[in-house]
Input
Amino acid sequence: MSERLRNYRFWAALIIIIITGILMYTVYIKLYPLHFEVAGELLHHWFSWVGVLFVAVFIPIYHVLKHRYTKHYRALLDVHIFGNLVAVALVSIHFTQQITRPPVAYPNLGTGIVLYPTMLLLVVAGFVLAFRFAKTRYRAWWFFHTSLAVTFYMVIAIHILHGLEII
Output
């Protein structure tokens, strides 16, 4: 435990998570209303698209590169951890903006109501793995994390297709 407390990566990740919570709260209380258009799309949608695009593109790249360039594993893992935490922050802002809309304009959450908890569970599992909270059940947590990633990809594809009114 004391080793974890001396790990600056642990504190940096925790700070990103706390800042995400604060940003979500400020959006929730409408301190920062983000429901306006920028370049033909709502600002909070841009946030979610950037976050999801990072996840969709970087995770497969990370998976390949970590096996090919083992000397750079630590740097790749840092980009994986912190990049995904920032991506989650952006998606969280979008989700919070969506659920705070007035009843007359409330969105059909549909797949988003499955997608967001899946993403949060991915973060929890990743946090447990990255900072060694699961020393005895590491392989089970790794399987859980990987399974959630596959679920995330399937649901995000359906969510985007539904949002674009293709399905």
